[in-house]
Design brief:
heterodimer; A: alpha/beta; FAD/NAD(P)-binding domain; Rossmann fold; 2 domains; five-stranded parallel sheet; 11 helices; 20 strands; B: alpha/beta; Fumarate Reductase Iron-sulfur Protein, Chain B, domain 2; Glutathione S-transferase Yfyf (Class Pi), Chain A, domain 2; 4 domains; 26 helices; 8 strands; globular
Chain lengths: ~425, ~425
Amino acid sequence: MLVIGGGIAGLSSALSAAQAGADVRLVSEAETTLHHASGLLDVLGYPPNADVDGPVVDPFDAIGELPETHPYAIVGEQAVRDGLAMIDDVLGEAYHGSHTDANALVPTHGGTVKPTARYPTSVAAGLASDDRELLLVDFERLTGFDAGVAAEHLEAAGIPAETNAATVEFPIVVRDDAKVTRYAHLLDENPTVTVDGREQRVRTALADAIEPHLGEAERVGFPAVLGVDHPAEIRNELEDRLGAAVFEVPMGPPSILGGRLEDRLYAALDDAGGEIEAGGGPIVDFDADDGTISEIYMDRSGSRIPYAAEQYVLATGDVAGGGIDADRAGVTEPIFGCDVPHPEDRYEWFEGEAFGDHAFAEFGVVVDDALRPVGAEGDPEFPNLRAAGAVIGGYDYPAEKSASGVSIATGYAAGRRAAKEV
Amino acid sequence: MSDTQRDGTDAEGASLTSEEGYEPRDVFGTTTEMDLRSGADNCTKVGTCDAECPVAEVNDDFPGPQFQGPEQWRLSSKGDVEIDDSITECSNCLQCDSGCPSGVPFSEMHNTARAKYVLEEQSLSIKKIRNRILANYRTSAWLASKLPRTANFFMNNGAVRWVMEKTMKIPSEREFPEFATQTFREWWRERGGAQVQSEEKRVAYFHGCYSNYNTTEVAKAMVRVYESLGYEIVVPKQKCSGTPMFANGRVDDARRHAKVNVEHLGDAIEAGYDVIATCSSCSLALRQEYPDLFDLDGIDELAAHTYDAMEYLRVHEDLESELAGAQAEDFPDVAYHAPCHSRNQGLGRQAVELFEDVEGVTVTDVGDSCSGISGTYGWKEEKYETSMEIGEEMFEHMEDADAEHGMTECPTCSMQMEHGTGYEISHPMQLLERVLT
């Protein structure tokens, strides 16, 4: 079985099929897909196309209310639960949220609060529903997180905790726009630095710099740069030294939390016996035998590399991810040419307002109950092709905050179904 | 291939739009081969390139690939800003290329900027001369191969090394690779060339400089493996792939060599041969850097027919069944490092995957860090420290692995692995030879 796409949908499909005993290979055009993701795993943050304000409290309650074309309605609530259980099992102690059906409210780097179903353990102490006083810390030369702005936003949002902010010098002078990975590796390695004539380890020096700003705060929020290899160890050490809970605030790309999630999911797939091929190039073509896909082709710097399997899962993402092409001529699914319904008139694809109810946000393939993309007449395009994640249309994930959940649920279901056929 | 070229040749898209009665207006003028505007415009500044860059990781003075690529292109394309000399700090590992979510053609941008800097702006110095000598390794290796024993003796003689560090800025810590007493091509001629004839299974071997002059056992292993599987091999006339030249801004030298390679490998392709290489940087150059940088007849044809030697067998043979349960007698367990230039081709996991079911040998992946030597980079006195600092993670992971022997496809990664750990390093083709023949 072949899975095309290395995001959460592809990984979930491959993992679910491998666990069900299928011989799986995942091919991904890029090596670093999840470095652009926040590391949070949402299910449903806001009700779709509703006039109801505010976040969804219990996404599972809300699933029953969704239109029947929504991917959650197609796979059913149980698949959403089973998919999440598979991911919970893989992530173990590293993630929180499985103890309840309700959404958690996680403050992010801009100071907005995101309703999410699962979150890294390292962000757990930062939840917006917690009333313990908190201090947000940023570093002088780190771009991408301004503790002062974030604290003001959180206060304006009316969170129950008193919120303060501080800016400190990171103990080693790094260049002005050093990337998050530079900070993370320095905290991992914890080298000795000289601060005010004293030799200290970086983690100690960082805690010392924060100490004077601590006040009555019971928890301290850092930009999510607390280590790539030893996040728990770094967090524990900072907690000991500060005498307060420490948490990470999820950041934009390149994202350490996304990278950690990626490492865990790929390692799990590797352990489950799945084979992984990332960074070789896009899948560009296929051969069909009697209407069944027999081979697909990768374009590796100009050479066509064939891959053959019995079952295929298309997990290539939406327009933004490259899984759907939209240009002046129309909207298409570029590999297999699956039908993507869209208004004939291009001016009906979008609304005038930036955050309007755009038609393009829901562009994607239409699938049947078995997650097979169907043609305009409603018949499966190919008996051995299934779709997972954002390549499926009919829902607006940026608006409803459901990207990870749909990817996990449809990936899980597509993987299990395909595994049954091989 | 860059988006610049893709956009320029999108004939299908053009015909679709003209059917709709829409005539595209050319806003930016006709795109030429080297116009990197659309590449620069693709950049959305997410900074994954900088986060992936192993040099930026250890060197705070290095502005990173986002600057070296799209930003510098914009600055310098106006004509009044010179290329920043930090371009020479880039090691050409191309991790930025693999990391970019928007298809910014970093390798093309860096190579173009570096060439402009070296050929038009950099003043003449010992380092510049040294870089050209390093870039033209093939010439030095060719000379050394005439008297290999003498060369081996002198190149690793303490006094000679001291003089080289002082005069040529070659770090005395590095041990020079040993030159084979018989080159691969001499061996090939002596054995009478191909021992297997085939109308269907035909490959042309691009050995590159290193397996011809230094590690001839890698080239010989390839020959034995391919012949055992019934392939007819030819070894066309060839020069350097250009990798060390690109990395040192000598695109002028690289172009001269590329012309010879494209011509002779092109002849082989026309006669029904596919091109294979055992060195990951050679295959990357032929497949990716050539069509990006040069406009030569047959260059796209060559890219489309070039493969890594292991990749080719995986496409054309059922290697997995051949290897399942096979025995690797007396082959040591190995700590495997995937070279950046293999990962750039999506081939970073093939060795580990391939030998998974072979009995008697364990291949442990040491992760996706860069070895730090990046060809000629670590051979420069002023880059030596950076090179070793980048390599630190790989050395540690190699020492943690349950093996006292290393494995990789890239000849210079192999030097660095040996230098940092003292392990002996093999090429996957040598393990394949042990299993199959």
